[in-house]
Design goal:
single chain; about 500 residues; alpha/beta; Rossmann fold; N-(1-d-carboxylethyl)-l-norvaline Dehydrogenase, domain 2; 2 domains; five-stranded parallel beta sheet; three-stranded mixed beta sheet; 21 helices
């Protein structure tokens, strides 16, 4: 079967939506770091729709910072790929044309540098996952001792990290008298724009204080809230792309019908008409961000750890268990009380819609995929709402249970003995902590809660909270995840 390329667009079935604009008429205006499934299901789709609605030189050059997978899949396809939306009525396909070029920085640093310093590049967006920012969770600033960050600080003209590349490119633009681009984080970090701005300025201050001052004065770092459930692609994804679009597509991506993007409207040199594509432009993203991190992502973490330990492979399987689905609803109801009002959002309806999305039978979102990088995800998703609930006298019981479920997940085996992979930037620290704590669940819980990179002392030293986490972990180990979940609901 022929591979999907520009020449194939005219042969797509009428049922498959294709780019509603002339791709050759629009130049690159965005460089995106981290061309993974989420970018292809979210920002690239909004940009595709914005180009169709309002045009402009806003196509995307995608850059992989580590592996060449995206380049090898997309470059032979002229940047085109099939997006499969899985709804209750069955899969639906469209072809996205916003990507103009895809490369890998380690393979072609010169081209990467040229794209980042091109006068036409006005936005540099990122989906590199939380762990790739070089963030020190204890300080909220740059972790200069982390090996990849330390290497970039030692050789700032040969960067490998996202922050290193942004500082390097901004320095070259300043020297050349070019206006800065707008760095745009699209990762699940609280106040992601402010976080990225701090990391960039702190990195720059270590290599060129004058550059750091220029960045502080000239470069905006808008925050965003992103939402679209996007499982990893599977053989079924590729098969559906072949069946629906009629072409081989090594870059096919699947997602849910729902999508949301809230953007702080603060750009140095303009932006695409993302609002015409359905994005919400806001003066303050924080209420939306807290809503999503606590109600969606926090519930996802609870689902991931409880489900994986119980041997439930997918989010939909967890939601198919009455006891676990009830615990998810109770958790959302509890953490919703920590939220400020969100403009235009009915929080009760938002929670119901989330649970319907989680239960979507067409979405095979693996629990172990969500369980990755827990040390980075737990603080904004579970720790912060637990702290706020404790301070305000609000319910916190389900946060404690979710953290205990994470602790049980760290043991590396589910209840049937199957291996659970630990993919986490603190993996060695977590393993060493558990080994030193011994086999008693209470000792293990207390040792893990003492890790200040994840849990602040105000939480770990809260007697009732720490005791509840330890008791929950002991009950999970003794009785199993499902009986422990029922007990948490009752108490």
């Amino acid at each position: 079967m022929t591979r999907l390329t520009e020449a194939a667009l005219c042969a797509l079935p009428a049922s498959v939506q294709k780019p509603a604009y002339d791709r050759t008429a629009h130049a690159v205006g965005i460089v995106h770091l981290g061309v993974g499934a989420f970018h292809k299901a979210h920002q690239a789709v909004y940009t595709d729709d914005a180009l169709a609605a309002a045009g402009g030189d806003w196509r995307i050059a995608g850059i992989g910072l580590r592996r060449p997978d995206a380049e090898e899949a997309l470059a032979p396809q002229d940047g085109l790929y099939t997006l499969i939306e899985r709804g209750p009525e069955g899969p639906r396909a469209r072809v996205i044309g916003a990507l103009a070029e895809v490369l890998t920085a380690p393979r072609d640093p010169a081209r990467t540098r040229a794209l980042l310093t091109a006068p036409s590049t006005r936005i540099v967006s990122l989906t590199v996952t939380e762990k790739a920012y070089g963030l020190d969770p204890a300080t909220g600033g740059l972790d200069a001792a982390r090996p990849d960050i330390a290497a970039d600080l030692a050789s700032p003209d040969a960067p490998t990290t996202a922050v290193g590349w942004i500082v390097h490119a901004l320095g070259l633009r300043r020297t050349a008298g070019l206006a800065p681009f707008t760095p745009l984080s699209c990762d699940n970090l609280p106040e992601n724009g402010a976080v990225l701005g701090r990391l960039v300025r702190e990195f720059a201050a270590r290599v060129d204080p004058d550059l750091a001052a220029w960045i502080a004065a000239e470069v905006p770092f808008p925050s965003t809230m992103v939402d679209r459930i996007t499982p990893a692609s599977t053989d079924e994804t590729l098969a559906d792309a072949r069946r629906l679009a009629g072409f081989e597509d090594e870059a096919a991506t699947e997602t849910e019908p729902f999508t949301q993007w809230v953007i702080e409207d603060r750009f140095a040199a303009g932006r695409p008409a993302w609002d015409a594509a359905g994005a919400i432009l806001a003066a303050d993203v924080r209420p939306y961000e807290a809503m999503k991190l606590r109600l969606l992502n926090g519930a996802h973490s609870l689902i991931a750890y409880s489900g994986a330990v119980a041997g439930l492979a997918h989010v939909r399987d967890v939601m198919g268990r009455e006891d676990l689905a009830a615990l998810v609803a109770a958790h959302q109801d509890a953490v919703a009380r920590t939220l400020a009002p969100v403009p235009g959002i009915d929080l009760d309806a938002y929670q119901r819609d989330l649970r319907a999305r989680f239960a979507n039978p067409a979405m095979a979102h693996r629990t172990v995929q969500i369980a990755m990088d827990g040390s980075q995800k737990l603080p904004p998703r579970l720790v912060e709402p637990a702290l706020e609930a404790l301070e305000r006298g609000l319910p916190w019981r389900t946060c404690a249970f979710a953290i205990a479920a994470w602790m049980r997940f760290l043991e590396g085996r589910d209840e049937a003995g199957a291996e659970l992979p630990l993919s986490d930037p603190l993996a060695e620290t977590l393993r060493a902590t558990l080994a030193a704590a011994g086999s008693d669940p209470g000792d293990r819980a207390r040792a893990l809660l003492a890790l200040e990179a994840i849990f602040p002392p105000t939480l770990s030293r809260h007697d009732a909270f720490a005791r509840t986490v330890a008791e929950d972990l002991a009950r999970i180990v003794r009785d199993g995840m499902l009986p422990a979940a029922r007990a948490a609901l009752e108490g």
